[in-house]
Structures are given as C-alpha cells and as structure tokens.
Amino acid sequence: MKKIRLISFSLSALFLVSILSSCASNQEQNKETNNKEEQKIEQTSKNEENITIEIGSDNFVSGEKIYNEKCMVCHQKDGKGVEGTFPPLAKSDYLLADKERAILQTLRGSKEPITVNGIEYPGNVMTVFKLTDQEVTDVLNYVLNSWGNNGGTVTIDEVKAARAKIQ
Ligand code: HEC
Predict the structure, then answer these.
(1) 10 — phi, psi (to 5°)?
(2) What Rg, from alpha-carbon coordinates, does the chain have?
C-alpha cells in the first residue's frame, strides 16, 4: 500500500478558515466566505475519493504478477476474455460499475449467471483462489487500471470489509 497515494486537502486548514470567517464582523462578507467554504468542502470530499495507483509501483507490479499467474489463463493477457465463456475485464461494464461486487467476485466467484457487456456468462465457473487481502487489492487495482480501464482503485480496507460480509 505504501505507494498508493491518498490525495486530500488538509481538513485542519479548512477548520482554521471557518474559525477566521466566523470572526468577521461584516455579515455580507461572511456570506461570501461561507459560499467559498462550501465550495472548498465539496472539492475536498471529491479529492478524498481520489486515490490513485501508480503504474509501475510495487503494488501494481505485484498485481500484474498475480494476474498473470492466476487470472490470465481465463481472462487472457489483453483482459478481453473469451466471448461467451470467460468474461472480459478490459472495458467490462460489470467490473467498472461496482467495486464491492468486483471484490466479492474475486473472493468467491459468482454462483449466478452474470451479464458482461451484453453477453451472459454462467456462474460457478471461475476458480476461486486463496488470496490475502493485499493480493486481492493489488490484483484488482491492476485490473481496474489496465487495458484502457480507468476504474479507480480499491483499498485494503474495502477488501477487508467485503471479506467480513461473507465470512
Ligand atoms: C477458470 C477461469 C477463471 C479464472 C482463473 C479467473 N476467472 Fe474471473 N471469471 C471467470 C468466469 C467464468 C466469470 C463469470 C462468473 C463466474 O463464473 O463466477 C468470471 C468473472 C469475473 C469478474 C466479474 C465479471 C467481469 O468480467 O467483469 C471479475 C472481476 C473477475 N472474474 C476477476 C478475476 C480475477 C481478478 C481473477 C484472478 C485472481 C480471475 N477472475 C480468475 C473465469 C475465471
């Protein structure tokens, strides 16, 4: 996890701004400051979700290795899968729509048939591997950010939380 950067603005700075603005005597001015403050808070919460994974980082390389060893046999080197048999991970609407579902799929596969990019795949086919939380995080971050995917990132805490749900 060490190279996954969490970009966030300092909340304490915002706190300071709010204290300073509450001291201002002119009400009109106060209103304006408050508006600006709201904008800043909005921006901050967006930025807090903005976790990035560095291509080429240790975690990314470890994710690629796990993918090549364990997932590639079905989902293929280019992530495109085999139509009708193994679903694609590259540009997969199913994968990109729901991170928690992607984590759960990696942890336990799917018993039900699923539809990926308009094509149905039967459940119960995917091999389920015993992966650590860190391995699940790394392989998914690799998959979410390869072959043109711009799927954001999962954190080890999200993996832990998903695992706790099914245990
Ligand atoms: C034996 C072949 C096989 C292997 C190995 C395999 N998968 Fe799958 N995968 C499937 C199939 C088939 C499905 C469709 C649902 C099911 O059967 O569980 C699927 C579905 C998925 C999905 C959700 C559907 C999609 O295409 O977006 C994800 C995400 C996924 N696999 C990730 C992985 C990861 C990560 C690994 C390696 C740790 C892996 N798979 C290994 C066959 C495989």
Answers:
(1) -75, 120
(2) 21
How many other C-beta atoms are found inside a 10 Å radius of the C-beta of residue 95?
A: 23
Nearest residue (by CA) to ligand 1, atom 15, is 123
Nearest to 86 by CA among 110, 62, 61: 110
Q: Which of 62, 69, 74 to mutate to test the pocket of ligand 1 (most atoms within 8 A of CB)?
A: 74
- State how far the Cα of 167 lies from the Cα of 164, in Å rounded to an integer: 5
Longest pairwise C-alpha distance within the chain = 69
Let me know: does 160 contact 133? Beta carbons within 8 Å. yes
For ligand 1, is residue 123 a contact (CB within 6 Å)?
A: yes
Q: Quote the tokens at residue 120.
A: 């149905």
Q: Is the pLDDT of residue 41 over 50?
A: no
Q: Is the pLDDT confidence value at 4 over 50? A: no
Greater model confidence, 28 or 76: 76
Tell me: pLDDT of 38 over 90: no
Write down the pLDDT at residue 37: 52
Cα atoms in the Cβ-side hemisphere of radius 13 Å centred on 23: 6
Tell me, in angstroms, the distance from the centre of ligand 1 to residue 75's CA. 7
Percentage of residues of the chain with pLDDT beyond 70: 69
